[in-house]
Amino acid sequence: MRKIRINGRIQVAITALVLVVVAGRAFGQNCPVQFPGQQLVPTVTLQPESSGVYPAGTSFSGFVSQTGDPCAPWSGQSVHFLGWGVGGSSEELPGTDSRLVYRYELDYGQQVTISSVVVQGAAFQGNDCCPQLNGPAEIRLLDANKNVLFTQQTNSGNSFQTYTLSTPGATGQVFYLDEFTTSVVWRYRSSIVVNTGCQVNPSDINTFAGGPYSLDQKPISMNATFVPTDGGLPVGLANAAIACGFTGFNWQQEVAFLPAPSPFKPFNPTVQNPANLSTDGSLKAPPLFFDPPQGGGYTYYGPDYAYPFYWNSSDLANGFVPCTLANPIETTYTLYFQDCPGDPLLPNGSAIKFQASLLGILSSGNPSPPLYTFNWQSTYNGKTKTGGAQLKSAFPIDPSSGTGGVTITSVNGVPQTPPIVSCTATPSTLWPPNGKPASVTVSGTITAGTASLVPAGTGYLVIDEYGQDQPSGPITLGSGGSYLFQVSLIAARNGNDQDGRTYTIIVNGQDALGNVGSCSTIITVPHDHGH
């Protein structure tokens, strides 16, 4: 037997033969985990540098271990870890006398955000314990590379204590949890719970391409709503933010690709680093920028729109209504997103591409890592009602000024394919140009892409070069998505129209995300029958 004096008290340690206990679970094996409530459960693996444990039934200061398994706290059972003076881990917290109690790897298998870690037990001895020892004692959460994310210092004493390590915005797939104390003989731990209270339920976010609609009936606004719920019931944005350790939620957006030529000016290269100019001087998308906390839109500098943003409270206060809609930024239960870019110089076949994310606002005012991300693009080549282009959605779009629209390309990394549409028209030429109606038969198929087709989401429209005869209507699908309908067009053209009159028949299919798949075919009333 040997005795160790701590703070004037003599504690009796059991013999070294008993102290060198082989852990009840081999290093590298997974720990059973039981969390209260509906927390996400990681795969927990004990790391080999951890301290050993005493056998079940060991008692110190009235605390009796239920098991000799070092994984026990993860299922709410108690265990005594060896103190550093009786064969515990020799790993020191740098610059201190605190030694490692345990280290666990936490692998969630997906990206999660940890809001807090709760550790219960006794003998959390730190620098207020023993004058001859240099603390502090700490509970730490580390990232996948074992960089320290958050720490919580603990106090000395052998009474039962609960420590909560707050970890707002700790996002990743793999983490490490460890603890250091100056306890010489024993460290009693009875529970470890990791709270993932700010996991975003994908069903709480609704992303959709919506109106207004361009000339060819494409949606030209990107929309999203976030309504946090618990058990299917809305809990309110403020309550959800508190549960996650945030002060609120907001959206962040990156312009991922901006085709040239474009009316959007580059960041002033004479004043600042030309961050969105290519080496040849051509325009490229600006770098990622961060959305400040609630009440403001994205940061941008001056009138050059180098950092475009969707919309903000000051725009609304000044009477600007983006996208011809008037949604608030947020209500008690809902956070809104809406953007409707327009580029009248957009080259044919090109698109402006964006990445938007939901994130939390930390107490520092900085954004958390993304909680939910969607990618989208716009091929809309129209103008605002002020006659200009916009990436900063402060002016309503004029849907009659262009074609093309918005498509959601991925949600949380999962690609989204619009509906697949085919079409043919017979006849493709109307002759003679006698001014009489002519029947055209249109047939093809409309099938779902990633998302299902919506009822009443299939239809056709005609764009007449003369703007006179432009029928439209719904399409009823048959087996396998097949369809066939007839449309009446006027077989007439102006006598001086050398290349003839054209009708463009567009067939659209829309899915639950608002994505539209299209096919078009052209009917011609020629100048003469030989051409």
- Rg, please? 33 Å
**Given the helix and strand composition, which structural class is it?**
mainly beta
**How many E-type strands?**
30
Describe the oligomeric state of these chains in a short phrase.
Answer: single chain
Largest sheet: 8 strands, antiparallel
Strand content: 35-45%
State the distance separating the first and last CA atoms.
110 Å
Summed over residues and divided by their number, the pLDDT gives a mean of 80
Helix content: under 10%
Shape: elongated
User: How many helices does DSSP assign?
Assistant: 3
- Low-confidence runs of at least 5 consecutive residues: 1-25, 265-273, 287-312
Number of domains: 3
Tell me what you see in this structure:
- The structure is a single chain.
- The protein is mainly beta.
- About 5% of the residues lie in helices and about 40% in strands.
- A hairpin with a 7-residue loop joins strand 26 and strand 27.
- The chain is elongated.
- The N and C termini lie far apart (about 110 Å).
- The model is unreliable at about 1-25, about 265-275 and about 285-310 (pLDDT under 50).
List the defining traits of the structure above:
531 residues; mainly beta; Jelly Rolls; five-stranded antiparallel beta sheet; elongated
